[in-house]
C-alpha cells in the first residue's frame, strides 16, 4: 500500500499542489523558476473576464446535457437488455460497442457523419423531411456546435450508464415483480415502484461518476471543435488548456484549474453527504 | 387481447432493432467508408459499398508512419496496464483485508481521482516533466496516465478481492506463505476475472490517451496513434476514406480486447456500485 500511496502523491497530490502554487504566481511562457507572487490577482482577473463566465455557462449546459443524455439512453437500453429475447447477446454487443472506440476515433467518424455536403446524417435528416436543407453546418454554426458535441459525447459515454443500470436491475429480486404481477400492476407501476427505487444506490454512484466524467470530458470537445465555433463549446476544462498552451498564461490557467478542482470537489462532497451516506431504504 | 399477444413482442423487437441500428450506424459507416476507394464525395451517400477494396488500408501505412504510431500506442497501453496493475493490486489487497476506515469514504477517495479534467493535470505534469527530462518520452505519458488508471484498477480489484473468502488467506498463511505470497498465489488466481477486467481497463485508458501525448510528444516518430489520427484529420480534410481506415485500425485493438473480456469488464466496472 505504501508504494501506491507514494506514487499517487507524485502523480496526483503534487500536481495539484503545483497547480495551486502557480495560481498565486505570475507564471508565463518562460517558466521563470522564481515567478513573481501575485496573490489572488489571477483569480480577480478571471472574475472580471466575460469569457470565464461564458465558459461557466457552457460547462453547465454541456455537463447537464451529457449527464441527462447518457443517463436517459442508458436507462432505455438497460431496460431493453434486461428483457430475455433472442438476439440479446448481439444487441448487447452493438449497444455497448461505442464505448470500446477510442474517443478520437469516434470523433473522426462523427465528423465524417456530420460533414456538411456529403455527410450521412444531413442526408438522412433531409430525406426523412426533418430538415429543409441537406447541408446543415453542424460544426460551423455556433447554435449547433454544442448539440453536435453533445451527440458524440453521449453516444460514446452512455454504454457505461447501460452497464451500471443493467447490473442494478439484475440485483432486484425477481419475486418483487412476480408479486406485482399477481397484484395486477401495470408496467409503469412496476417501473415506478420496483425498478426505480431498486436502482437508487447504483443510480447515485452512476450519476456522480457521469457528473465527473462530463466535467472532465475534453478529448471529444477538443478534437471536434477545439472549443469553437465562436466559443460555443468552450468548457472550463477546454479553457484551462487554451490559457496554458495557446495563450501561455500558465498562472491564469492554474487559477482556472484550481477553481474547477474546487467546484468538482465541492459538488462531489455535497452529493456524497446527501446521497451515498444517507441511510438506505431496507 | 389476442392481437396484443403477438403485437407486443413485435413492437419490442422493432424498437430494439431501431435503437441498435441508430447506435450501431456510425460504426457501420466507419467500416463501409474505409472500404470505399476514392474520396467518398458522393451525393446521395452510398450506404452499401459498390466496390469494396482494401486499398485504403495499404495507403494509410505509406502516407503516415502509422505502424510506428501503433507500436508507440502499444507501448503506452501496455506500460499503463502493467503500472496500474502492479500499483493497484497491492493497495487493493491492503484495503480489502486491513480495513480501518469506512469503505464508503475510501470509495469516495477513489472517485476523487476521476473528477480532475485531464487538461488540468497536463500543465503541472508539463512543468514537472521539463525538469525530469520526461518531455517527448513515452515513459512520461505512461506516468501521467497512471493518475487516472491506478484508482480505477484499484477500485475494480478491491471489489473482486472482497469476494474472495478470507479463509483462503488464512489457509495460505498457516501453510507458511507470507502475505505477498498469499496474494500472488492464492488471491490473484481466485480473483482472476477482476485482474482481467482491471488489465483491460488500464490498457484501454493507455491506448485512448490523447492530451498528455499530444502535449508532451513533439517528435513525429514518437507520436501515439490517437495523436497521429487527429493530426492527419487536421491536415487532410478531404481524405475521408483514408481517415476512416485509420480510425478503424486504431479501434480494432481495444474493440477486440473489449469484446473478448466484455463479461469481466462489465462486472469489474460495476463492482462496489451494486454490492456496497
Q: What does this 3D model show about the protein?
A:
The complex is a heterodimer of chains A (282) and B (276). Chain A is mainly alpha-helical and 282 residues long. Helix content of chain A is 71%, strand content 0%. Chain A has helices spanning 2-23, 41-47, 50-82, 88-96, 103-113, 120-127, 142-170, 174-182, 187-198, 200-215, 219-224, 236-245, 250-276. The longest helix of chain A is centred in the N-terminal third of the chain and has 33 residues, at 50-82. Chain A is globular. With 276 residues, chain B is mainly alpha-helical. Chain B is 77% helix and 0% strand. Chain B has 12 helices and no strands. The mean pLDDT of chain B is 84. At the A-B interface, helix 1, helix 3, helix 4, helix 5 and helix 6 of A face helix 1, helix 3, helix 4, helix 5 and helix 6 of B.
Gist?
In chain A, 71% of the residues lie in helices and 0% in strands. By secondary structure, chain A is mainly α.
Amino acid at each position: 500500500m505504501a508504494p501506491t500511496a507514494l506514487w499517487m502523491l507524485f502523480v496526483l497530490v503534487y500536481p495539484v499542489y503545483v497547480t495551486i502554487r502557480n495560481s498565486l504566481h505570475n507564471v508565463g511562457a518562460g517558466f521563470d523558476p522564481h515567478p513573481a507572487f501575485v496573490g489572488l490577482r489571477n483569480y480577480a482577473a478571471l472574475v472580471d473576464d466575460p469569457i470565464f463566465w461564458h465558459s461557466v455557462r457552457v460547462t453547465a449546459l454541456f455537463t447537464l446535457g451529457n449527464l441527462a443524455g447518457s443517463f436517459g439512453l442508458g436507462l432505455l437500453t438497460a431496460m431493453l437488455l434486461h428483457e430475455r429475447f433472442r438476439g440479446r447477446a448481439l444487441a448487447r454487443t452493438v449497444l455497448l460497442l461505442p464505448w470500446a472506440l477510442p474517443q478520437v476515433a469516434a470523433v473522426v467518424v462523427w465528423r465524417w457523419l456530420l460533414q456538411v455536403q456529403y455527410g450521412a446524417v444531413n442526408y438522412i435528416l433531409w430525406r426523412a423531411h426533418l430538415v429543409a436543407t441537406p447541408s446543415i453546418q453542424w460544426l460551423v454554426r455556433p447554435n449547433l456546435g454544442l448539440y453536435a458535441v453533445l451527440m458524440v459525447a453521449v453516444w460514446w459515454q452512455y454504454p457505461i450508464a447501460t452497464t451500471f443500470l443493467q447490473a442494478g436491475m439484475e440485483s432486484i429480486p425477481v419475486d418483487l415483480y412476480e408479486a406485482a404481477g399477481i397484484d395486477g400492476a401495470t408496467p409503469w407501476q412496476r417501473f415506478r415502484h420496483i425498478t426505480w427505487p431498486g436502482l437508487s444506490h447504483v443510480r447515485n454512484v452512476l450519476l456522480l461518476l457521469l457528473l465527473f466524467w462530463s466535467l472532465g470530458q475534453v478529448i471529444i470537445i477538443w478534437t471536434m471543435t477545439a472549443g469553437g465555433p465562436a466559443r460555443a463549446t468552450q468548457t472550463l476544462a477546454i479553457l484551462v488548456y487554451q490559457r496554458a498552451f495557446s495563450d501561455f498564461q500558465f498562472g491564469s490557467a492554474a487559477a482556472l484549474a484550481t477553481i474547477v478542482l474546487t467546484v468538482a470537489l465541492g459538488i462531489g462532497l455535497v452529493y456524497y453527504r446527501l446521497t451515498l451516506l444517507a441511510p438506505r431504504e431496507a | 387481447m389476442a392481437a396484443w399477444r403477438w403485437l407486443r413482442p413485435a413492437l419490442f423487437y422493432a424498437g430494439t432493432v431501431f435503437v441498435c441500428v441508430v447506435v450501431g450506424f456510425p460504426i457501420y459507416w466507419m467500416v463501409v467508408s474505409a472500404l470505399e476507394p476514392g474520396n467518398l464525395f458522393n451525393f446521395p451517400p452510398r450506404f452499401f459499398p459498390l466496390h469494396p477494396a482494401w486499398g485504403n488500408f495499404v495507403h494509410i501505412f505509406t502516407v503516415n508512419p502509422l505502424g510506428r504510431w501503433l507500436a508507440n500506442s502499444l507501448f503506452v497501453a501496455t506500460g499503463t496496464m502493467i503500472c496500474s496493475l502492479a500499483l493497484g493490486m497491492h493497495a487493493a489487497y491492503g484495503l480489502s483485508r486491513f480495513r480501518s476506515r469506512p469503505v464508503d469514504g475510501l470509495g469516495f477517495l477513489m472517485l476523487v481521482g476521476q473528477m480532475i479534467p485531464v487538461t488540468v493535470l497536463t500543465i503541472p505534469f508539463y512543468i514537472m516533466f521539463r525538469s525530469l527530462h520526461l518531455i517527448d518520452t513515452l515513459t512520461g505519458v505512461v506516468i501521467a496516465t497512471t493518475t487516472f488508471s491506478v484508482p480505477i484498477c484499484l477500485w475494480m480489484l478491491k471489489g473482486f478481492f472482497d469476494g474472495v473468502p478470507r479463509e483462503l488467506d488464512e489457509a495460505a498463511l498457516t501453510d507458511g506463505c507470507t502475505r505477498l505470497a498469499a496474494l500472488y498465489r492464492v488471491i490473484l488466481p481466485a480473483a482472476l476475472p477482476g485482474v482481467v477486467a482491471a488489465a483491460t481497463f488500464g490498457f484501454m485508458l493507455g491506448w485512448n490517451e490523447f492530451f498528455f501525448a499530444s502535449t508532451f510528444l513533439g517528435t513525429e516518430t514518437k507520436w501515439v496513434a490517437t495523436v497521429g489520427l487527429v493530426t492527419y484529420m487536421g491536415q487532410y480534410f478531404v481524405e475521408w476514406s483514408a481517415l476512416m481506415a485509420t480510425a478503424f485500425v486504431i479501434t480494432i485493438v481495444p474493440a477486440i480486447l473489449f469484446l473478448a473480456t466484455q463479461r469481466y469488464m462489465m462486472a469489474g466496472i460495476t463492482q462496489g456500485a451494486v454490492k456496497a
